[in-house]
Amino acid sequence: MSRLRAIAALATAFTALVTVIVAFAIARSNHVYVGGLVWPFISDLGRDPPGSYVLFFGLNIVAVLLGLTWSFNHEYKHRFLHKSLENGQISRGVYSLSYVSCIFGVVGAFGLPVFASFNASPTLHYNSAFGFLLCETVAMFTNTYLNYRIFLVKRSEMDAGVFITDRYGPRSVSRIKLGELQAVKRGFLIEFSCVALYTMCVIVYLPVLYNGSEAPHLTIAQCIALKLGENYCTSTMKLDDVYTKLWDYEKDIAVHQVRALAQLGCMLTLIRYSLSFIAYKTEEKTIKA
Question: Same structural domain for residues 208 and 220?
């Protein structure tokens, strides 16, 4: 299971990065309109084919892999916490939190494709974005707290010295326990830093602490003036008789650029967080022993 969890985490990170990079490269090479932003919102990368196909298939694969990653992580947490519960080291409430992080992580993962879809209605897009970020936030905070509790259990075992050191063996039990403690601490610190960065990115992207004005739609006349194609402006992207579905970020470009970067930051920190599960590989081997 340790190997499956590592493979799922690596596959999630690789697929997500490749999907976004390829979609961005396609948008740049095809001169796709992104509202004047240097780094666009992910939904704008998937507005026109073939970038839309790349994002659709790529993010659906990422959603499945991310769900599997959370599931494999739950399996590890469940085994360790069950043993700690039997030993009286944690309460049943703490034990049940592993289910909370898994459920929210898996459910939130499947909001990712809708969150990044340009064709979704504004209401659906906003709600899916809020749902995805909220679910993953709950999963990450809960999982990080569980890792902190596991760290406390491991540290208490080291402090109590309830193990025997075999000085004649190839590896002493004390060294194994120390390796477990270091692995848990390393994973916890990585996850704590990711949660902090992720939270800041979410606050900026949504936005939470400031009033972010919605960008106006690009008019059909402006669209044609930008030489995006008359049929594209008057038919494909037509919203009404005056406006297109395209967003014009240039009137408040600094705010929208920061929000677009914050959106990217949310994805990157979530990917980095999932990779932190690999940090427990050494410690997990000893659980099986």
Answer: no
- Adjacent-strand bridge partners of 219: 243
**Do 132 and 218 have their domain in common?**
no
Q: Prior bond to 50 cis, omega within 30?
A: yes
Same domain, 239 and 153: no
Q: Are residues 174 and 242 in the same domain?
A: no
**Residues 140 and 240 both lie in one domain:** no
Say if residue 164 is in the same domain as residue 180: yes
Instruction: Report yes or no on 8 lying in a domain.
Output: yes
Q: What is the DSSP letter of 37?
A: -
Give φ, ψ of 227 to 5 degrees.
60, 45
Angle at 98 between CA 92 and CA 103, to 5 degrees: 130
What is the identity of the amino acid at 189? L
Q: What is the pLDDT of residues 36-93, one digit of tens each?
A: 999 999 888 888 999 989 988 999 999 999 999 999 999 888 888 888 888 888 999 9
Residue reference for tokens 């009137």? 251
Residue type, 245: K
Q: Report yes or no on whether pTM surpasses 0.70.
A: yes
Q: How confident is the model over 139-150, as pLDDT tens digits?
A: 999 999 999 999
Task: Mark whether 219 and 165 lie in a shared domain.
Answer: no
**Helices 92-109/51-86 angle, 10° precision:** 170
